[in-house]
Amino acid sequence: MKKHLPLILRIIVAIILIQTLRFKFTAHPDSVYIFTKVGLEPLGRIGIGIAELIAGILLLIRKTAWAGALLTLGIIGGAIMMHLTQLGIEIQNDGGVLFGTAVLTFVLSGMILFIYKKDIPVLEKKF
Q1: 79, 78, 62, 73: which is closest to 111 by C-alpha?
Q2: What SS3 state is found at 120?
Q3: CA distances from 65 to 30, 59, 76, 85 (A)
Q4: With CB atoms 3.0 to 4.6 Å apart as the test, which of 23, 75, 97, 101 could cross-link to 28 if both were Cys?
């Protein structure tokens, strides 16, 4: 199991990122509401969707998992900050599910980055 855990974590985060794309790219009312409230509709919604797609793909490739995790930390860190400063924990009566998913994704991405720290080109000689 220890051998497969990094792959499982990468797949979970990639699935979370990629499954949300249908909401962003189809202009789902909930997604439009969120990005309008933070002043990023529509370019921010589309741009962040593209960044999440790239992060999801990078996570699925072993050699670039560190880059996908780092990109995910940036994207999701921004989402968490938006929740804490502008959106609130609960969005349109979702019970905080979106915020909880963001926190989970952030934590798992941090774990992935830690696991694959040796693959980061700038740091590879230090480990």
Answers
A1: 73
A2: coil
A3: 30, 4, 16, 30
A4: 23
CA distance 102 to 97: 9
Reported as a single tens digit per residue, the pLDDT across 18-61 is: 999 999 999 999 999 999 999 999 999 999 999 999 999 999 99
Phi, psi of 26 (to 5 degrees): -100, 5
What CA–CA distance (Å, rounded) separates 112 from 33? 31
Reduced to 3 states (helix: H, G, I; strand: E, B; else coil), residue 71 is helix
Cα(73)–Cα(76) distance, integer angstroms: 5
Phi-psi region of 28 (alpha: psi -120 to 50; beta: other; left: phi over 0): beta
CA distance linking residue 73 with residue 13, whole number of Å: 11
